[in-house]
Design brief:
By secondary structure, this protein is an all-alpha fold. It is 74% helix and 1% strand. The protein contains 21 helices and two strands. Strands 1-2 form a two-stranded antiparallel sheet. The protein is globular, with a radius of gyration of 23 Å. It starts with a helix and ends in a 5-residue tail after the last helix. About 1% of the residues have low confidence.
């Protein structure tokens, strides 16, 4: 325990150096900060829960976080990055509204297509989990509602044995739709026009309904967190949240998440007696406590006996995102190891995946991750201040910061964000967006002008 405590002190010192030297006393609203917050919380929970067998793994986790922090410092030196000066210069630059005209029409078309994909998915699935649970509540009471909710929630990836490709649907339902919703929020803040406000409000309602339809809470929480983070980010000045908007988002998000937690019954409520605290408790429990318990057990019962895979483990897991399904993935095997059934997922986190693939050499990979995440933020600030570009990169950066491995990074939509930018750029490169806009302007011009 003394060694874990000393490592914790060392991490606190390195984190302080990162804050005062790399970030120069300003919070970096980029992937490195999101990753670091989760990593430090995981280390604290793991150090508290670790037994004699798993303590070496917690030391490995601490070494990896230290290497990550050193990687951000190396990036700062390599890029000669001065956070305060460059952030001030970026916020002082004028905004370029590239969400207008033909490009705006294309973005709206992508939003409509995402809605069609989402509606088709729920139609083929045959149920909408919260609605089915509420119907059961009215007809059969609370206990039946809880059973229905959890049963249907577990069945959302398939229906009657038919594969519905939830991972692919999620790219539209849980990535593009929320991203475009956030884009129109800032378009409304930039232009103050009624059309952008109306589009934003409609899309926000659709995004929230799509996010909770499978019974999971993560996608709604992530949408709310993304909107909040982007609404607070210094680089979004002067388009950031007002205090009233901040309060409204927080209250609505906590209320909906707590309602979903109530539908899950005792599994969601744990031992808390205050309903409004269910959602905040679940955030802490799901982000740190429960994952740390599971991953320490995975280390003791599985990882400690495995030789390094040298990247093959990651490649095998990437197969699961290809069309069709693998019979049993590693996460299914780990679920069976811990709970006796393969019907569920216990995925490795960043540190488990690095250990499984590289063991102690994974510390070098953690250094590279820190370097690249800081470089990503530098790239954001040194590029043009265009609305679509910045919001999309900020949203993708949040996905990058919380992803645990390449598979999760892809499934949560990191690549989809860049495909979104590529589709817009490709349309412009062909010239048809400009021709569409020129035709629209000529048609709307007064006769004889």
């Amino acid at each position: 325990m003394i060694a874990l405590l000393l490592v914790g002190v060392a991490l606190a010192l390195l984190a302080a150096v990162h804050f005062f030297w790399v970030a120069e006393g300003r919070v970096i609203f980029g992937p490195e900060s999101f990753f670091l917050a989760l990593a430090l919380g995981t280390y604290g929970a793991s150090a508290f829960l670790a037994g004699p067998v798993s303590r070496p793994y917690v030391l490995y986790l601490g070494a990896g976080i230290a290497a990550f922090l050193l990687g951000t410092m190396a990036s700062r030196l390599f890029h000669r990055f001065e956070h305060r000066r460059e952030l001030a210069a970026f916020t002082a630059a004028p905004w370029q509204d590239d969400l207008r005209g033909a490009r705006c029409a294309l973005v709206v078309a992508l939003a409509l297509f995402s809605l069609v994909v989402t509606a088709s998915y729920f139609y083929l699935l045959g149920f909408y989990v919260p609605l089915a649970a509420l119907r059961t509540l009215v007809s059969d009471g609370p206990q039946a509602m809880i059973a229905t909710y959890n049963q249907l929630r577990a069945a959302t990836s398939s229906a009657a044995g038919a594969y519905l490709g939830l991972g692919y649907v999620s790219q539209f339902k849980d990535t593009l739709l929320p991203l475009i919703t956030i884009l129109f929020f800032f378009r409304w803040r930039l232009q103050r026009d009624r059309v952008s406000r109306a589009v934003f409000l409609v899309l926000m309602g659709c995004t929230a309904l799509a996010a909770v339809g499978t019974g999971a809470r993560f996608h709604l929480a992530f949408f709310g967190a993304s909107l909040t983070v982007m609404g607070l980010a210094p680089y979004m000045r002067p388009l950031r949240f007002s205090r009233r908007q901040m309060v409204v988002v927080a209250v609505v998000l906590m209320t909906v998440l707590s309602a979903l937690t109530l539908m899950m019954g005792a599994r969601g409520m744990k031992t808390l007696d205050v309903p409004i605290l269910w959602a905040p408790y679940q955030v802490v429990e799901r982000a740190f406590i429960s994952p740390s318990e599971q991953r320490l057990e995975v280390y003791e019962r599985f990882l400690v006996e495995q030789p390094p895979q040298w990247g093959l483990a990651t490649l095998r897991e990437l197969r699961s995102i290809l069309p069709g399904r693998l019979p049993v993935t590693l996460s299914n095997q780990l679920h069976e190891l811990l709970f006796g059934s393969p019907y569920g997922n216990v995925a490795l986190d960043t540190w488990g995946a690095l250990w499984y693939d590289f063991q102690w050499l994974g510390v070098l990979v953690a250094f590279a991750i820190g370097f690249l995440m800081n470089a990503y933020y530098v790239w954001m600030l040194r590029g043009p201040k265009r609305l679509v570009r910045l919001v999309t990169l900020g949203y993708a950066g949040l996905i990058l910061g919380i992803s645990t491995d390449l598979q999760v990074l892809i499934l949560h939509g990191f690549l989809t964000c860049f495909l979104f930018l590529a589709v817009l750029a490709f349309g412009e490169s062909l010239g048809w967006l400009q021709r569409w806009e020129d035709k629209r302007l000529s048609d709307s011009a007064p006769a004889g002008a």
